[in-house]
Amino acid sequence: METFVDARGIWQECMKVIQGRINNLNYKMWFEPVTPIAVDNNSLVLKVPSLFFHDWLEEHYGTVVNETVRSVLGDSAKVEYRISDDDGGDSGPSFFRPSQFSTHPIQSRWSATARGAVKAPFESNLNPRYTFDNFIKGDSNQFARAAAYAVGNNPAGTSFNPLVVYGGVGLGKTHLIQAIGNFARQSGKSERVLYVSSERFTVDFVDAIQKDRATEFSNFYRSMDILIVDDIQFFAGKEKTQDNFFHTFNALHQSGRQIILSSDRPPKELSGVDDRLISRFTWGLTVDVQPPDLETRIAILRKKSEDDGIQVPDDVIEYVAANVTSNIRELEGSLISILAKASLGNKEITVDLAKEVVRSLAVSRRTAVTVEDIQKIVADVFDVTEDQLRGKTRKQEVVIARQTAMYLTKELTRLPLKTIGSHFGGRDHSTVIYACQIVGNHISTDDKFKGKYDRIKKKIEMIGM
Ligand code: ADP
Ligand code: MG
User: Which pTM does this prediction carry?
Assistant: First the structure.
């Protein structure tokens, strides 16, 4: 009992310090639900509502927490976390307990419907952090944001149904599609909002089949006002799941519910996805998010550092914005590393420190393979020239080399088919699809060809090492 009192006193001290370091909203969201349990061997043991909550807290405030606890308990102090295991009501708001992160994910997801209550409560899986308010606008995402906002404001009431957001990794797709759900729920426009990744949908579906509960599964999904499915490219090749999703889609669409999807490429370029699904995907509006321009990158860094309640000098922000250009996730990651380094080493946040961090991140990140790399190696192994790969000749030995290079480009880069075609003499996406089929066939039927293919692939993969 005594340790409990101690723990509470210590945590109260810590909370005071933390409250002064981060903004109020984040404090409320991420610290109020934490409860101290004990002080044990110089460790402060904290209970958090879920694994998801824990991971987020550690990633974003790990440094702040550790430092604070050390300042209160002494330099060798540690923090330990326990995940709350009761499903009762006292472990913070329910959105901190998304069932996909809990220990019995699938059961709790739709077992309520299995018991016959279609309108039973459920976990939306929305992360409250993803809102329109903290989504920074820029030329690269303005249109997508406007469309998303329109849908959030009037779910199923616009012609944007489905709304499909596509674009490269780390460009804000998940943030944007979840913002729609959060907004629609908070404004009371929609009650039943569900966010799932396409993988989650697949796993749940397979599980439902195995447990002979496909009907409950379908009823659950069909009871939504808004269904958000992230990363639909992972439906590729999963025919049964696609079939089920097709019927779910139709049922929702017909009864005036909103469907929101994201993908890493335009729907038309989703290979391995049934044409009738693809045609449904294009019924509404398809919008893309592009990599952010310099101004947007600066704005994002400013906002993130303000949110963390930390003053970052302009020249540091500008340095990071100018040098981390790939995507917003890496931009955020760089800022977090800089802040962590500064506070851990008790250093000032300077351009030199930023340089150090950006450099080490660049080294640790495997260099991405380019189309040029692939063309060079394929040309070499097939004994043709790179120009021939990019040219018009239909000579048999060049054609197969070109097809192989296209196939590898599709495998090893995340480029859209259209872009791949443009690197090979301006060919269209159907030519790329055809090439991939041919090469896929060769690989599975011709051992000699497969040997050659594997050798090329190894060589290419070595580049990034
Ligand atoms: P994607 O789903 O496209 O891979 P995410 O939505 O996961 O990308 O975004 C990666 C990170 O960048 C997230 O932490 C997200 O909050 C942040 N982010 C992306 N776009 C923006 C934006 N426009 N403004 C603020 N933060 C953003
Ligand atoms: Mg995403």
Answer: 0.61
